[in-house]
Design brief:
Layout: E1 4-8, E2 11-19, E3 24-29, H1 41-47, H2 49-52, E4 55-63, H3 72-85, E5 91-96, H4 98-109, E6 114-120, H5 128-142, H6 146-157, H7 160-165, H8 167-173, H9 179-190, E7 208-213, H10 221-231, E8 234-238, H11 245-248, H12 251-261
Parallel strand pairs: 3-4, 3-5, 5-6, 6-7, 7-8
Antiparallel strand pairs: 1-2, 2-4
Helix pairs in contact: 3-4, 5-6, 5-9, 6-8
């Protein structure tokens, strides 16, 4: 998978693209990761193959060299700049976790870019559940306690069964983490502080689909319910599912596809 680079004055953003170049634009905005999502390009290509036959899919990363104090609102502004440079309008926009926060912000600020909005495992603000978990991640990252960070990340994102199955892989992953990765991760999670778009969500005209997991420790289902209510969107909560329902449940892709294709 080829990783492409956009250079916009002092802004550098990486993205990758797959699917049908003549298809409808479909933009994926990923959530927080300890390493750049660009490292997972081949996996994502396979994961979203059900959409690749009909959509021109773009996965847009956060900017490189993120400054201190880089907020979710800043991330949204930079994603908008990337979409403008790529001439992406009236796209299906799919945001996961922090990517969903970015997606909501874009839909409010630049409705011309968003034909449909799909949100998974996200919130319109930062609830106390998330604050506690984020603060623990910040502590581990600042102390360079990589094993504790990876295990806490896994345990709060995925179900117990998934964590047990891939525990060794999460532990091995710590060997790949660099100081640069940690600084990037810290800026991303700290960027959630103060995020709140509840007062603006009623202005979103695009059809909205909100997905969540009943057992999400970071953004419990009431956060998904709140977004659906404020946007008059559709809501589906997966039972026995955690924050990482987008990775653990293949039905998520099928549900996204059905909603995106609906006229």
């Amino acid at each position: 998978m080829t990783i492409n680079t956009l250079q916009i004055n002092d802004l550098t953003i990486e993205y990758f693209r797959f699917g049908d170049p003549a298809g409808k634009p479909f933009v994926i905005i990923p959530g927080v990761a300890v390493r750049s999502v660009m490292e997972s390009a081949d996996f994502i290509n396979v994961q979203y193959r059900a959409l690749a036959e009909e959509y021109d899919i773009y996965v847009i990363d956060r900017r490189k060299d993120m400054p201190a104090g880089y907020s979710v609102y800043d991330m949204a502004d930079d994603t908008v700049r990337a979409m403008d440079m790529l001439y992406l309008k009236n796209a299906v926009v799919y945001g996961v976790s922090q990517g969903g926060m970015i997606g909501q912000t874009i839909a409010v600020k630049r409705p011309d870019l968003v034909q449909k909005l799909i949100l998974c495992s996200t919130s319109s603000h930062i609830p106390q559940d998330a604050v506690k978990i984020i603060n623990k991640w910040i502590e581990f990252a600042e102390n360079k306690n990589l094993r504790a960070l990876m295990l806490s990340f896994a345990e709060n994102i995925y179900t117990k069964a998934y964590c047990e199955k891939y525990r060794d892989a999460f532990i091995m992953f710590e060997r790949l983490i660099t100081d640069e990765d940690l600084q990037r991760f810290l800026i991303m999670v700290k960027g959630c502080d103060g995020f709140d778009v509840r007062d603006s969500l009623e202005s979103i005209d695009a059809p909205v689909l909100v997905l969540g997991g009943r057992d999400d420790k970071i953004f419990p289902p009431e956060n998904a319910e709140e977004i659906a209510e404020l946007t008059k969107g559709e809501l589906y909560i997966y039972e026995n599912a955690a924050h990482g329902v987008y990775d653990e449940n293949a039905d998520v892709i099928a549900r996204i596809k059905e909603f995106a294709e609906r006229t």
